[in-house]
Write a structure and sequence with these properties.
The structure is a homodimer. By secondary structure, the first copy, chain A, is of the alpha+beta class. Chain A contains 5 helices and 3 strands, in the order H-H-E-H-H-E-E-H. In chain A, 29% of the residues are buried. The structure holds a DNA duplex.
Chain lengths: 102, 102
DNA sequence: TTGACAAATTGAAATTCGTGAATATAATAT
DNA sequence: ATATTATATTCACGAATTTCAATTTGTCAA
């Protein structure tokens, strides 16, 4: 399934903010509660919520509600999708040295 | 060499604009003159120049001047760097299923 | 040297983005 | 029911980004 150029740009927006990079690095340790992320980042709760929405909309992160808490984790499927789109986008045709080919 | 979170975000900005996605797709066919890119995109010459600067600053694209013309192409090294940073960023520790690991 | 052409830079307008205060919603506990 | 706690939404504002018109710079040809 081919993504539109607009959708592709949209997806990569997940990765072009310093705080979202920090969030992803925190989630590399595994699923984390929003409140824990909030403790580690010097931003307000609404700002965190905003970034989580962008990450979830891009399907790089998935959220799971448990009672009052929201647990977030990196989506392996979303991450793989982003990687393969990036590989496909930067692979010069006829060179075939992209690790994600086929 | 580890990139700062800020630098990482900066790098991915190369991929989060619809026109830059289109430019990369055009460059997949191989090196192209700026004037050729301009013909294929519905943007003005200064706008193209602006986007090419962002792509070159991010080291995803390299430019080569030949007389009056500028030829641009995808930098395999820059692309590989971006891919490996993305892999490293989205790989959940202890899962080790990233194609770019090691 | 002058003219023509390609690309970069500057400046300014419109839009998008990141942020936090205030508020709303949802779930739990008393 | 009421209070409390966790998260989401709304709103407003400043900063950054995208865009194009105008201008400048660089290169070549006559």
């Amino acid at each position: 399934m081919e993504l539109s150029d607009k959708k592709t740009a949209e997806m990569f927006k997940a990765f072009c903010d310093e705080n979202r990079i920090k969030i992803l690095k925190l989630l590399q340790g595994g699923e984390k509660c929003a409140c824990v992320l909030l403790d580690d980042l010097h931003i307000t709760q609404p700002t965190l919520s905003h970034h989580m929405k962008i990450l979830c909309d891009a399907e790089i992160v998935v959220g799971r509600k448990e009672g009052k808490w929201m647990y977030y984790s990196i989506s392996p499927e979303g991450a793989d999708k982003a990687i393969s789109v990036l590989c496909a986008l930067t692979d010069v045709h006829g060179q075939g040295d992209c690790c994600c080919k086929e």
